[in-house]
Amino acid sequence: MQYKRILLKLSGEALMGDRQYGIDPKRLAEYAKEIKEVVNKGIQVAIVIGGGNIFRGVAGASNGMDRVQGDHMGMLATCINGLALQSALEDEDVHTRLQTALEIKEVAEPYIKRKAIRHLEKGRVVIFGAGTGNPYFTTDTAAVLRAIEINADAILKGTRVDGVYTEDPEKNTNAKKFETITFKDVIEKGLKVMDMTAFTLSEENKLPIIIFDMNKKGNLLKLISGEKIGTIVDI
Ligand code: UDP
C-alpha cells in the first residue's frame, strides 16, 4: 500500500448526489462502502467533511448576514454531515469517532490530537467536524491542518473531476490532465486546487495533495494501492 494514514477531504456538495441541497442517502452509503474497503486493508483513515450542501458563511454574508454568525452556521453544517457519515459508516460495521472543533460534547468528542491518533491506531475512522473551529476559514484548510497534526501521509481531496487540468475540463474538452504537478507550478499557472490558505499551509509543511474523482467506484482503493489516479500535487 502506498499510504498508511490518509486524510480524506469530502466536500459537503459531494454528499448531495443529484440533489440541490442536503444529503443523498444513496451517495452517503456509496462513500461508506468505498471507505470501508480502504479501512479493511489496514489503512488509517481520517476524514474532514465540508458543509456547503447545507450552509456557507459567505453565502449568508452576501445576503446581509453577519459573516461570523454565518460561519458558525457553516461549521455546524459540517457537524450534521459528520454525523450522517458516521451513521453510514456504522451501517457498514466500520468503527468511527466524530471529533469536533466546536464543543458539542453530548453529540461528539471534542478534537484532541492524541485521542484522534489513538483511535486511528485502533482502526477507527476519525471524522473531524466543525472545520478549524474558527470563522473565515474553510474545511480545506481544516483538512490540511488536521492532516499535518495527525501526521497523515497525504491529503486526498475527493471531487467530481478526476484531477488538476490545464483548464476547466467541464468548459473546455481540450483541457489536459496533470499526473503530477508541483505546488510552485500550480501557482505559476494560476490553477486552482484549494483556497490559498489551505494550499500554502500544505506546501509549507510538504504535505502532498491528491485530487481525484471520489464518485468513480473503486477509485479510493486504487489510489491507495499505488495506481495512478487523479493528480498529485507535491513539492
Ligand atoms: N467554516 C468555518 N471555519 C472553518 C471551516 C468551515 O467558518 O474552519 C464554515 C464556513 O462558513 C464554510 C462552511 O463552514 O463556508 C462550510 O465549509 P466549506 O465551505 O469549506 O465546505 P465545502 O465547500 O467543503 O462543502
Automatic annotation (TrEMBL):
GO terms for molecular function: UMP kinase activity. Its EC number is 2.7.4.22. InterPro entries: AceGlu_kinase-like_sf, Asp/Glu/Uridylate_kinase, Uridylate_kinase, Uridylate_kinase_bac. Its main location: cytoplasm. Inhibited by UTP. Coiled coil: none annotated. ATP binds at residues 9-12, 52, 56, 159, 165, 168. UMP binds at residues 51, 71, 132-139. SUPFAM superfamilies: Carbamate kinase-like (SSF53633). It is found in: Cytoplasm. Belongs to the UMP kinase family. Homohexamer. This is Uridylate kinase. It comes from Polaribacter marinivivus.
